[in-house]
Amino acid sequence: MARCLEGLTTHHIPYLKLNRTDPNESLPNTKSSSSQSFKGPKMENNGDEWLALDKLEHVLFCFFISIFVSSIAYLSPFSLLRRWSIWIGSLASIAAGAAKEAGDEIGFWHSAGASAKDAVADLLGVAIAVLVLSVWRWWSRRRSRKIKPDEESEEMV
């Protein structure tokens, strides 16, 4: 394998040169035109893709936190908590996602820092949970109305 890579330079494989010291340096094999006057640093993606496992983890994390906290609030003996259980779960999930991103930015976890894409994935998880919980609550209310026997049919029996 070492012999295969012996003659290769960053000119042949541009991704071998990951740690560039000069931010104005362009990738090899790219032709710059004289009409381009912008010479600032190039925006790099740093592996933060939209369709990555990390984004799925953020969606699922916020989804399940919303479902869990909402379920706990819904089982509460206090009517105020039951009435607002979906929003309480959503706020708890958003707070957990924001705390995770703040921790990423501060450096508590080994990560590249806070990401707007992670925050969007968190909000998507919360939105899916709100939709699922709202449909479930609507369906369970509708079902409970149908199960109750009519007063007229009880009088006839």
TrEMBL record:
The chain crosses the membrane at residues 58-77, 119-139. Residues 19-42 are annotated as: Disordered. The keyword Transport does not apply. The keyword ATP-binding does not apply. Residues 24-38 have a biased composition (Polar residues). Keywords: Membrane, Transmembrane, Transmembrane helix. It comes from the Eukaryota. PANTHER family: PTHR35462, TRANSMEMBRANE PROTEIN (PTHR35462:SF2). This is Transmembrane protein. It comes from Stephania yunnanensis.
